[in-house]
Design goal:
This protein is mostly helical and about 500 residues long. Helices cover about 70% and strands about 0% of the residues.
């Protein structure tokens, strides 16, 4: 039986073993065996160090793409609210404006129901991913909101529609938290930004698809069935893919190691290292000498340094970025109609604008790991302010569509940036729950901002809506600029010290 090589890690860049001392070069198997012993000996810190030193080969990007497919169906569901809204009004189920500030028969109540569910999913259920694992929650939350949408598609009353939109929102909220956490833990530190941008680029291709389907179907009644119902049911095909995706995804080795399941974490790493090494064509780099990983953190630690400042920053950010992002994204067709454009034409313009949705994250692939996440967020929020105010004054078609594209690009670059950013700021043991907590503020903000946007539109028109949105984005800029830490190319464990 072949004995395991002895390992002596002298620094983050050098390691030796018995074969090397004898003058022979280590074999590929020696490298893998050495990495395995290193991971077991160093526990969670070793697992993280092994993962962070992996080259970004096809095996790593395949995992990102699989998670991105889940994000695609999530964003399809999340974004169809605004595009089917004219159809819901046309069918007589909802009204364009709201009777009273918190009326339940208008578009605002439908949007608010979704975000109320998202609040419950992110705030109250985020701990499930920390307790039962990223893989399980990724799977079952997707099945949850898919089933709820099937039921919602057959509703004929505002109450039934809002109830099942709320139920779907609970599953969506948990899925959002899980995917961001999952990606940040599965990829090495030097591509975290690009991995988030890639997942968002794939996910946001759902936006032009749902916009185009709405343009084709919402004004029609194929086979006597309202077009908006067809749009909702089309997204249900995600359930057919969920088990296929699940079978090809490993559990997060960082999560397994933090739970003390080192053997399982090591098994995941061995399979991943073998695939990466085969693609890399030479022995993998030596893992850096890790510092001890804090194995446990409690939720109350969010109120203690250094997490207190980060938590406050993200709460402020999420409350106000939601007003800016969804204030436009969920109201695009309605805002265009208020500018004097017909329902059919507004849906056509909205579908053209929506083509820009995946382009923002694609641009992010070029800049994601070159610039600090906080810097990108600040610059894009400033663009959002300028373009929003110009949009409110525009009447000419080309200018309206061009400014709409700029707003979508800026908003989606912010989106991929903060999804990566917030997942980097907390330790593995409470990452999903912490992200869920801070992210939940955006959900509750969206509940109330939907009604505020409706009130602004009713009393002050499109101009009032964009003044409101611009003020919110200015607060985002101040919060990130003054309170946000730097995270680019820093190990998750070092950020969490």
């Amino acid at each position: 039986m072949r004995s395991s090589p002895q390992i002596i890690f002298t620094s983050s860049a050098a390691a030796g073993h018995a074969d090397a001392a004898a003058g022979s070069a280590p074999t590929d198997q020696d490298t893998l065996d050495a990495a395995r012993e290193y991971g077991i000996a160093q526990g969670a810190a070793g697992i993280s160090a092994r993962l962070d030193r992996l080259p970004a080969t096809a095996a790593i990007w395949k995992l990102v793409m699989l998670l991105s497919l889940g994000l695609f169906f999530e964003l399809y569901d999340l974004m169809f609210s605004g595009y089917i809204a004219p159809g819901l009004v046309r069918s007589g189920i909802l009204t364009a404006t709201t009777r009273g500030l918190f009326g339940t028969s208008g578009i605002a109540s439908f949007i608010a129901a979704l975000f109320a569910g998202l609040f419950v999913g992110t705030a109250a259920c985020g701990f499930l991913a920390d307790r039962f694992g990223r893989r399980a929650m990724f799977t079952y939350s997707l099945l949850w909101y898919t089933a709820a949408n099937v039921i919602m598609a057959f509703q004929d009353t505002a109450f039934g529609l809002n109830l099942w939109r709320f139920v779907a929102g609970v599953g969506l909220g948990l899925e959002i938290v899980t995917i961001g956490t999952y990606i940040s833990e599965l990829v090495p530190k030097h591509i975290r930004g690009r991995a988030s941008a890639c997942s968002q680029a794939v996910g946001f291709t759902a936006v032009p698809i749902v916009a185009f389907l709405s343009y084709l179907l919402v004004p029609q009644k194929p086979f006597g069935i309202d077009g908006w119902r067809w749009v909702v049911m089309t997204g249900v095909v995600g359930a057919a893919f969920v088990w296929w995706i699940r079978l090809r995804l490993p559990e997060s080795p960082r999560w397994l190691a933090q739970k003390g399941r080192i053997d399982e974490a090591n098994a995941v790493m061995e399979r991943l290292e073998a695939r990466v090494q085969a693609e890399y064509g030479r022995p993998l780099p030596t893992p850096a000498m890790p510092e001890p990983v804090r194995s446990k953190a409690k939720f109350r630690d969010l109120l203690a340094p250094p997490y207190r400042r980060r938590t406050l920053m993200l709460i402020i950010f999420h409350v106000f970025q939601t007003m800016g992002y969804y204030g436009f994204a969920n109201w695009i067709p309605t805002l265009l109609i208020k500018q004097g454009i017909t329902v059919t034409t507004s849906l056509m313009y909205a579908s053209i604008i929506a083509i820009a949705a995946p382009l923002g994250p694609l641009l992010g692939l070029l800049i994601a790991d070159r610039f600090e996440r906080k810097t990108v967020i600040i610059c894009m929020a400033a663009i959002n302010v300028v373009c929003g105010l110009l949009f409110s004054q525009a009447r000419e078609t080309v200018l309206l569509v061009s400014l709409g594209v700029c707003l979508v690009l800026a908003g989606n670059i912010i989106s991929y940036s903060y999804h990566a950013y917030q997942a980097e700021l907390f330790p593995t043991s409470i990452r999903a729950r912490a992200v869920g907590f801070v992210y939940s503020w955006s959900r509750i903000s969206a509940v109330f901002s939907a009604f505020l946007i409706a009130a602004c539109l009713k009393h002050f028109g499109v101009n009032g809506v964009f003044v409101f949105i611009s003020g919110a984005m200015l607060i985002v800029i101040l919060a990130i600029a003054t309170l946000g830490p730097r995270t680019r190319d820093i190990a998750l464990e070092d950020i969490s010290k």
